[in-house]
């Protein structure tokens, strides 16, 4: 009797799964077109899954092993089951393998169940709580129905009239397992992540972010909006304005909440939970309300969290309401610091920051609704090329006594020193002076653009004002095209990222280096000598735009080591570094929360026991120094290096160049 | 405004014309939407929100080129959401150096809006602040300057709040049609958005330009920084110092004229200008 029932069950489940898959695909195809090479993507899928995805999942060994056992067991069991029970190929070898696969899956599901016993807050509950049971139902039932195939149970056991009941129960359990695993996979159950996830990996919008045999990939620059073509929507107003593979990506979310756990805005009690945001997008794509969401909500002041069930949307309805509520509130989108911690942690390779900036673009470019100081900053950028509205002619005032060489005079140098908007900020001017001192000590052939430099466009772009970004970028690129230089060095990771990763799409391709990288190189080349460190203990704060955006974790640490400093690492450092709260225009939009992000970061510093925190970003300096009653001092790496500089011996200086005399002159002023 | 009233006036929105000029950023001199004119448009949008059915038209007299177009689009970008009639701006085309007043007056007389809103003073050109007055004279309409807000429009009478020095406000009732001019006392203009600004169009209307003969005779030179007169405060206590800093200096001398005929008022002003050597 099972012989007849099983194929029916299996093929019904498969057929339903196919119908579900087609429906799901239709949902994704509501999105706008995106050019990806489908074939190449499918070919790359195994590598992307086994290498890139497991690189992220493997950070939690326990889960990664669990997943290997469960998912591996399931995939093998599913295929074998179709062969053995579906098509009736009762080969004992296949049967044996099937037993093995289902056993492995069962062991995996025990661990899944264990994790669900006392799940951390970041995990979603709801249907996810039944998943371990469904996994067990599937694996046990498959195991049992396969036993007769290999002859471990008498063939007739389930045949006799007395065993009808047993067979029926078994068939029921098989149906449950098949329902969750096959049917649920494409009809929106927890197993959806396997189907959508695999396709998402294959058709990812940023194919460059995956590693190849040649080495690791990274793709962090925002994609440019086509402003020439007036038909291109300016950002994302409704779910269907995302590209189809972005929608597919949202659908791949496993609601593991890793993003939630690392999000600084969530931790600060600002109204943003990246996991919920992705689920909101899934709700919008399919149409409906968020009432079924079973994880932590977007935080909200006073309430603990925004109640679920009050927001709803549809694929062609607005995401942010003009009045009242729609799918997402605007302040959720404006809370993000674009720190990329969520993207870095997401095992499904979902691109939260792209989505958030896409939606911000609509709010800024179409609705003119950049909150708080946003509009003022953007107006300043348009009128004065800097966010503070300062006279662009005063960009070099801080260096009036330094006699900085200008590109306009020299035309050709080794290093173009990009100052960034920190040139208008008194605190950052100290860093810049220190950096100039270091460059002169190492006799670097450098020059600055001076008043020809403009804001890189970083803030405009993160605030969604792509038009102002592109206007600034194009003018900067035109300026840079007049001169010849080998590389750009900057002490501002935001400029670094924009010049290095985002100007390329607009035609500006440069070799950009953060000052810590450059100083490390100078030290390695023997061009800098340092006095031994005499200060107290030091920790290092990785700026998001240097670390996660550009993968530079080593150089700053190497510089500190060269200074004789042993870094006391904070718990969250390197790729897990916690944002200072200064990125993405967050200090400008200033969405209230229950805590401040920089306070939390300075608390991390305190817990490390360090008396000084070394930073490498003007934003981080400003944010961290703005913390009241901080336990540690904040110094830029350039300042630490400048303080430790030792005049090199006379033979080194002999044949003194113009720079040497200039540098002594400069030092007198600095010291 | 009471809801029933609002309903009644649904169909009775008024025609508002907002005069806009090309501004000039104080530090960089770049063309932009002029600060006061943008506030004027903001005021018009506020009337529209209160009084559905109101039609706003924007009017600019001048030449058309790339930088002025970008500046004018700054106003058009304030119209987010549809149905405001702000997808287009009327451009009375005339060459640089023409007098804007006759062109505007003619157009306004022809289209006869009920309310004309303008900034108090242009950011480039003469910037004399005389345009609202000259227009009022041309059209024979009342003019209210330094407007803070429009309270209501009812049966052809508009109730306005005019800003006076030191935060005082004066409520006025004015029969339409009227001209109102706006300075820093009015609410700040909303953000201008790129999308609507880019989509908007210009309705270009040719005019018979009249050269600004007076301007042509002028000699223009960049302003020199003039020394500021310092206020000497003899204050004994912090309170006195604060009061001295916060208060505007009271004019010495002068006289307050109340209940006088326009002729008497004009005579008094004429006398004063002579005394001060402004008129000879
Ligand atoms: S978005 Fe990624 S990290 Fe966040 S819950 Fe979903 S799968 Fe996990
Ligand atoms: S980028 Fe940072 S702030 Fe934004 S959602 Fe992700 S983790 Fe949160």
TrEMBL record, chain A:
Which InterPro entries did the record assign? 4Fe4S_Fe-S-bd, 4Fe4S_Fe_S_CS, Csal_0991-like_N, Cys_rich_dom, HdrC_iron-sulfur_subunit, Helical_ferredxn
| Region called Disordered, residue ranges | 652-671
UniProtKB keywords: 4Fe-4S, Iron, Iron-sulfur, Membrane, Metal-binding, Oxidoreductase, Transmembrane, Transmembrane helix
Start and end residues of each 4Fe-4S ferredoxin-type domain: 244-274, 324-355
Q: Is Acyltransferase one of the keywords?
A: no
- The reply to whether Transmembrane figures as a keyword in the UniProt entry is yes
Q: Name one GO cellular component term.
A: plasma membrane
Please provide, alphabetically and separated by semicolons, the GO molecular function terms listed in this UniProt record. 4 iron, 4 sulfur cluster binding; metal ion binding; oxidoreductase activity
Q: Which residues cross the membrane?
A: 6-25, 68-87, 93-113, 134-152, 164-183
**PANTHER family, alphabetically?**
IRON-SULFUR-BINDING OXIDOREDUCTASE FADF-RELATED, IRON-SULFUR-BINDING OXIDOREDUCTASE FADF-RELATED-RELATED
Q: What is this protein called?
A: (Fe-S)-binding protein
Q: What organism does the record attribute this protein to?
A: Vreelandella sedimenti
From TrEMBL, chain B:
Query: What keywords would UniProt list here?
Result: Electron transport, Transport
Asked if rRNA processing is a keyword of the record, the answer is no
| Signal peptide extent | none
Specify the superkingdom: Bacteria
Q: Which residues form the Electron transfer flavoprotein alpha/beta-subunit N-terminal domain?
A: 37-192
Question: How is this protein named in the record?
Answer: Electron transfer flavoprotein subunit beta
Species whose genome carries this gene? Vreelandella sedimenti
